[in-house]
Design brief:
Oligomer: single chain
Strand content: 25-35%
Largest sheet: 4 strands, antiparallel
Order of helices and strands: HHEEEEEEEH
Number of helices: 3
Mean pLDDT: 88
Length: 198
């Protein structure tokens, strides 16, 4: 994902440089490269945004419903603990979203390599006020978590969860910056291409 975004960025930069090529056969190749770059970029981001906005129902997934019974809205994350063939563990972090009092959110978890997940709730951006650890003995039964108290079941595990969520948010900010730069370059290339046709 990040690799494709970086490829689009550098291809768009190169397309802007190729705008200076005006005559000869090289100009035709430069124009073709710029058109292909634009078409690929627009297609990729259209596909990406449709995929991001669609409901994340995954085949053979576990449905997790998080209900906020507290008087304040909380921002929830779920961390899935995956165990690999060599017995190493990895973390898969998902942002469920901000849940208002007496409302709920549903997330779908792939539990093929996992039998445990954590639910983390933040009040504000940095204030972790809820942490719970859940094992999944039966992956065919969907999970319902009612958040009724401000609890932290394990300080050590919640510190690990904090690090995972910080890394997840940092990665999302980084991708957001690259995507914004890609959009800017795509816009500039599109404007220059339309102007050159006129």
């Amino acid at each position: 994902m990040v690799f494709v975004i970086l490829v689009i960025f550098w291809a768009s930069v190169f397309s802007l440089i190729l705008f200076k090529v005006k005559g000869g056969k090289l100009a035709q190749w430069a124009k073709l490269f710029r058109i292909i770059t634009l078409v690929f970029s627009i297609s990729f981001f259209t596909y990406w945004f449709i995929k991001k906005s669609s409901i994340g129902i995954v085949e053979d997934s576990l449905s997790l419903q998080v209900i906020n019974k507290l008087p304040q809205p909380l921002d929830f994350y779920v961390i899935n603990l995956n165990t690999h063939a060599d017995s190493t563990k990895s973390f898969e972090t998902k942002h469920i979203g901000k849940v208002r009092p007496e409302y709920y959110r549903i997330e779908h978890l792939k539990m093929e390599r996992s039998d445990e997940y954590w639910v983390v709730g933040y009040l504000g951006k940095k204030n972790l006020v809820y942490f719970s650890q859940h094992s999944v003995p039966n992956k065919n039964i969907d999970q319902i978590i009612e958040v009724q108290n401000y609890i932290n079941q394990s300080v050590r595990l919640s510190d690990t969860a904090k690090k995972q969520i910080d890394a997840y948010n940092y990665e999302n900010v980084k991708i957001g910056i690259w995507v914004a730069l890609d959009f800017l370059l795509m816009f500039l290339n599109l404007v220059l291409l339309i102007r050159s046709r006129k």
